[in-house]
Fold:
Amino acid sequence: VREAVVSTQSTGELKRKHKVEVTSFLCQYLLEHYSILTNEEVLELVPGLTPLALELMESLAVPASTSRHPVLLCLDETSDIIPWEACSVYNTQPISRVPSVSFALSLRKLRSVPVKLKSEDTFYILDPQENLPKTQEFFKDWLSKKDGWKGVSSKPPTIPEYTAALNSDLFVYLGHGSGKEFLGGKSVQDLGGRAVALLMGCCSGKLKSTPMGYTGTAMDYLLSGCPAVVGYLWNITDRDCDRYTKKLLDLWLEKGCDVSLLALMNPSRGACKLPHLVGAAPVLYGVPDILCDNTEL
Structure:
């Protein structure tokens, strides 16, 4: 590949003007990411490539369907707000976030991996502040058709209801923020839990760095015993948030045990009308291998 790339730049004034240094790293990058790059993007990296060189790279490139193990990100306070998971080069790469490697190892000891959930053991909280009428309209009938799903709608949840939510297999929060005004901080940790939590509201996945480590609702849920938490890094629009949530759950319930929840987060970003503003915001903290054990919904 290197010889083919170099030969395309060896002649012609235009090619000499835009000549780039062809290193083994550049060739490796092109082969690994060719399946998700357009020809225009490749030509921006290496101007003057001939069709023959492009065909050669296509034949040697790593297929987009290549199975990859999840990547765990341990980020500091300056980089945790960046939506690394939504970068185009990671379209086919499942990425989960953890506060530290030791924390990730502790999660694996608490729960067997992969974590298999019974989809009918789901608890939801829908619009607890009763000020999201369009979200109510969007989800009410959809949620009512899910066999076995329990939840509360249009009212603040009680402590017993939150206890039931945290001790179900799947907990879906559909409202403003993360619900911490109803139950948050040490109260969540004291209740304990085992649910995979989808906190689908503004900044629900945003963490704050302190001298004692990270704090935030997502951390509270992880410390309570939840194996994984999905949340948003910043403020988002309610309609796009609803589209993303429904797309993610529909795909996951359809795929069942074949695909993890984490692997479907990137494909679901396309459901948003603002894919770079809202679609890039959701991230997953915790165990990457979350499977749905029942698709009969």
User: Anything to note?
Assistant: The two ends are 49 Å apart (CA to CA). The longest strand covers residues 122-126. The mean pLDDT is 83.
